[in-house]
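Students often ask why we bother predicting the structure of a whole assembly rather than each chain alone. The short answer is interfaces. A chain on its own may look different once its partners are present, and contacts between molecules only exist in the joint model. In this exercise we take two input lines together and write out one structure for the complete complex. Read the inputs first and try to guess which parts will touch.
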Amino acid sequence: MSRALRTGAVVLCFLVLVSTASAQTLPSWKAGDTKAAIVTFVQAVTDRKSKDYVAPGDRIAVFDNDGTLWSEQPLYFQFLFMLDQLKAAAPQHPEWNDNPAFKALVAHDREALAKLGQKPILELLALANSGMTVGEYDRTIRDWLAKQRHPKFKRPYTDLVYKPMQELLAYLRANGFRTFIVSGGAVEFMRPWAEKAYGIPPEQVIGSQQEVKFEMKDGKPVLTREPKFAFIDDGPGKPVGIYRHIGKRPIAAFGNSDGDLQMLQVTAAGEGRRLALLVHHDDADREFAYDRQSQIGRLDKALDEAKANNWIVVSMKSDWKRIFAFEQ
Amino acid sequence: MSRALRTGAVVLCFLVLVSTASAQTLPSWKAGDTKAAIVTFVQAVTDRKSKDYVAPGDRIAVFDNDGTLWSEQPLYFQFLFMLDQLKAAAPQHPEWNDNPAFKALVAHDREALAKLGQKPILELLALANSGMTVGEYDRTIRDWLAKQRHPKFKRPYTDLVYKPMQELLAYLRANGFRTFIVSGGAVEFMRPWAEKAYGIPPEQVIGSQQEVKFEMKDGKPVLTREPKFAFIDDGPGKPVGIYRHIGKRPIAAFGNSDGDLQMLQVTAAGEGRRLALLVHHDDADREFAYDRQSQIGRLDKALDEAKANNWIVVSMKSDWKRIFAFEQ
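Now the answer. The structure tokens for the assembled complex follow.
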């Protein structure tokens, strides 16, 4: 083989290898600015020679769950679950028939619910989802998730995780990141399936918390659920949850709604290179389309902030080849 | 070589290897029942053929900090730090001169402090340790730890970590365990040094929490410390902290005082093989000797429970070759 031929062969092999690697990175993401911005960020913070290099211990990435890693329409899935627990407990609580929040909830009366505001609704749901041990509640959640089907997709709720985001989580971990969920939803509703769906173990799931109380019951130590919230991990609560649980400022944050704004602000405000990303629901055919006007997962202020600060906005329609693993 | 000789050589090599491995395991622990019980437990839960085998994902070990991983006498080190902050803030607070908790604290009046009870003392300390951002507070903690010396050992407080426990943490992790601190102390006081001292990253440090509040300050998002406790991770609070933060029942728990009792109970009550261990401070020469009568780190009820349930009780005097790394 001539020297020119040999050199040509080496170059060709190199190009094949590079293009293979690139096609294997985030395969459900279309080639384009969004994917390039993510890959460029990861390369910059992991390349020891880069001025933006970040030591592995500081590669913390935080992800909202509802609407960012899985669907949240027509209602947050955990809300549907808690509502089912309310209905199941109702026969033991005739006094609820006089409760305006109860009446509005069982009648799905959106107007009455909006008028009541969050507080009495959350209080009633917390009450109906308390009194049992955390072990009993965990079994109820697992049963519900196994049996119930999503109204639009007719599939288990846990099928509605976004394939491109699963790939992104795995890609970040392969590059030395530790990945955390930081969700307005309750920890106990996510932990049973987050490890299988996202590769995120229970201790890396941060969320809202109902009070639990230690007590001895029949000589056994148990934790019992109390009818009160201990912590709401949403909006300005998210940076608090991150501080309490992780104790380090993330270098990458992923959300989809105004409830993620403060988490993205805190992440973006750190020194050095940062990634702040919003998933924009603009695909009514394959999933749902909603933003500024939606009661669930409203994306309004955060969208303005994203534009003002050059955060990445993912178009589910244009940036993702497929949304769910079950799509053909 | 004859067959007998060859067999003999193989057996000899095997014995040398086994004894070397055993000498390398927990080198600061004396051979004896305590060390054997720990090693036997770890072998049982990691051997795939054992009936007590535990999958790596469920190998969770929790450690109290004060008195279990480092010293806590003559007063919890964090208490000394917070007291110094109180004294530093006093000139700006002339109104404290009429506060009985303030007077008792600065006079080190143990009788008055005991009479007042915990509540007004903690409230005043929380007040003196609030108002700043979490970043500013972190720098104050690091400065204090760098400058202050322990009254008995004349060394930085972070030198007073127990060498045998450092080895135990590393030994468990080498066997697929994830190790967590679960302390009555505040997270922000442990995180700056826990990774270097124990190999435990910030997100695996669980502790008491003062309230923090998200706000925008000069256009920057910050977290400010509030004069109020959000969570006390002690006694019955420890299983709550474990549930909130880890979401799995540990299979091994390590403590030294009555404040660790419920954490050990919850751990021991799980199905399958469990390890519950108390460090007993019985070495006045090398460290301190105290248990049932001590105001700091009282070990009374938990000692009775340990005896009733065959939990391991470590004698610092008899079971540990050395306590601190700086000992000759």
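Check your guess against this: Residues 44 and 52 of chain A are 6 Å apart (CA to CA).
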